[in-house]
Amino acid sequence: MALSRSARLGTLATAAASFLVIAAAPAPTAGAPGIGDPYFPQLGNGGFDARHYDLDIAYDPGTGRLDGRTTLTARATQDLSSFDLDLQQLEITKVEVDGRRAQFTRDGDEVTVTPRRALAEGREFTVSVTYGGIPEPLGGPIVFGSKYGWMKTADGVFVACEPNAASTWFPSSDHPADKATYDIRIKSPQGLTGVSNGRLVSTYDRGDSTYTHWRESRPMATYLATATIGKFDVQTGRTPGGTPIYVAIDPVLKNSNNVDVYAVTAAATDYWSQVFGPYPFEETGAIVDDMPEAGFSLEVQSKPAYSAVRNETTIVHELAHQWFGDSVSVDRWKDIWLNEGFATYAQWLWAEHQGTRSAHDSFLAAYNARPADAAFWQIKVADPQRDTMFASAVYQRGAMTLQALRERIGDKAFFRLLPAWTRLHRYGNADTADFVRLAERISGQQLDDLFDTWLFTTGKPTL
Ligand SMILES: [Zn+2]
Known about the structure:
Elements: H1 11-24, E1 29-30, E2 48-60, E3 65-76, E4 80-86, E5 91-97, E6 100-101, E7 103-107, E8 110-114, E9 124-133, E10 149-152, E11 157-160, E12 180-189, E13 193-196, E14 199-206, E15 209-220, E16 227-230, E17 233-238, E18 244-249, H2 261-276, E19 284-288, E20 297-298, E21 305-306, H3 312-320, E22 329-330, H4 337-354, H5 359-368, H6 392-424, E23 429-430, H7 432-443, H8 448-456
Parallel strand pairs: 1-4, 2-12, 18-19, 19-21, 22-23
Antiparallel strand pairs: 2-3, 3-9, 4-8, 5-6, 5-9, 7-8, 10-11, 12-15, 13-16, 14-15, 17-18, 20-21
């Protein structure tokens, strides 16, 4: 914005100019129903910027019923006559904007809220949604497991929502391009533990219930939020490097883990802090729950959630995501290799660190394992398409890309590049072009041919 020449003439002229500007302003319009991601046109929402979520949820594992109230503080990014939130089939009983009742309509997972008065661009406002029902997890072709989102367990619930299932349990702008901080309050039957992101603010029993309050004060993508509830053995402390750690393990799994989750979490958090830059969050940890139907683990912010798979290499992968995916998030889902390629490469780095196999040998093993005519080589890593966004090529060819880059620019430049990337985009969003630019700047080399071959072209590259 720049001051106009007439505004310098005096108060009267300023007032007149302002009046003219107001008179000429276009009428407020509806915010877009999506944030503009071609893979998920309806995901996220336009017209506002989410700043802070206050999630208040009560869950009854007996009936499976969730009762919730979400208060979102947001800033209007245009003059808004109405705006959307994303929420699956749960029933909404009340919507308020700035404490006053607001009208709402629903169409699929889009909730359109019309405040009594339009919201001016730049204005901060709150929207509160009171809702409840029995959440349904999502299924379908995108993820490996048969279900994801809000998943009922024998003693509570396991919550893991990548990429689009936060809407199974709270209303939001459900896209990583719109990150926010969180307060998460969980009411559960007494004796169960509610585990969430960030740090524990308080927990107490009243009546038959346990109330637990968590706060994530670093920006977080919606899919990384959790409110996992169940019987847990909790172990807390600090890593040798000094990061607070909180590990919750379902007691029925106590003897089925082939790994010391607490020890590996502590060691990997500290080692990645040396390689990738300072640990980005206030606490590290793990949630280990008995949910075989999920069939996956997720890099839940500050506490990865493990269901079926629990081994050292999975733990180091999910912890690497705290830098690559959680702190530095994708702006569009087509860039998912910036999460999965890096976390897979971290597994190779871990093996190198342990002295079991060099990253070069991991690269060769992955490369040689797939003949040139394998379907694996037909995925374009930097735009894998929605239903194949978690294809193994995104992981393995993504990691191969990083090893090819390392061998081209040398260890010195490569191990400056990784922490520079996490520092430059800390708590924000970035895309593949940003990474290519930074790699070229730090190495002083033209790298288009390398990235074109590995990320933007199908077919098996020649070595
Ligand atoms: Zn991953």
